[in-house]
């Protein structure tokens, strides 16, 4: 992986877009202190290099009827490369799993899950997650309240 060199203007662009990805290029250019054409070129370069992966709307889960947020810590029976890849691919097929990380330590995966309610989440854990052929252990943590929601990277 090639690391891209970023200057202070690039970092300002990333900070501003992370806070508000819907602003116009003209507004973004004004906020970072450059004119619109070079700002657009910089944004395109950041997109083409993969630093900016996409633009997303942040949705309010509870207002849409998704009141439960939980984390699942999953241990696999065997940590062969094939099993790790197979389980990682399976997580992509499960709508309840919103984000997944392969982790080190006592477990193999950390899953961020969102569900309509406890019953639907329990059904997912019992009928889908623990039923996966590679899964040995599952520990779940139900969240109480979100206390911080930020972009992923501090600039």
What does the secondary structure layout of this molecule look like, with pairings?
Elements: H1 8-19, H2 25-32, H3 36-48, E1 68-76, H4 81-91, E2 97-102, E3 109-115, H5 118-129, E4 135-142
Describe this entry's structure for a reader.
The protein is an alpha+beta fold. The chain has helices at residues 8-19, 25-32, 36-48, 81-91, 118-129; strands spanning 68-76, 97-102, 109-115, 135-142. Strand 2 and strand 3 form a beta hairpin.
β-strand number: 4
Q: What kind of sheet is the major sheet?
A: 4 strands, antiparallel
Order of secondary-structure elements:
HHHEHEEHE
Cα radius of gyration in angstroms:
20 Å
- Please give the count of helices: 5
Q: State the end-to-end distance.
A: 21 Å
Tags for this model:
4-stranded antiparallel β-sheet, 155 residues
Please give a quick description of this structure.
The protein has 155 residues and is α+β, with helices and mostly antiparallel strands.
């Amino acid at each position: 992986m090639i690391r891209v060199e970023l200057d202070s203007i690039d970092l300002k662009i990333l900070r501003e877009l992370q806070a508000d990805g819907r602003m116009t290029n003209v507004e973004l250019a004004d906020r970072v202190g450059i004119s619109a054409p070079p700002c657009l070129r910089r944004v395109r370069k950041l997109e083409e290099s993969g630093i900016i992966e996409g633009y997303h709307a942040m949705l309010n889960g509870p207002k849409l009827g998704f009141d439960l947020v939980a984390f699942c810590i999953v241990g696999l029976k065997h940590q062969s490369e094939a099993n790790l890849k197979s389980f990682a691919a399976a997580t992509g097929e499960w709508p309840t799993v919103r984000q997944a990380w392969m982790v080190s330590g006592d477990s193999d995966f950390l899953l961020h899950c969102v569900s309509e309610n406890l019953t639907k989440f329990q059904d997912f854990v019992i009928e889908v997650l623990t039923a996966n052929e590679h899964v040995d252990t599952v520990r779940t943590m139900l969240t109480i309240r979100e206390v911080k929601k930020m972009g992923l990277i501090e600039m």
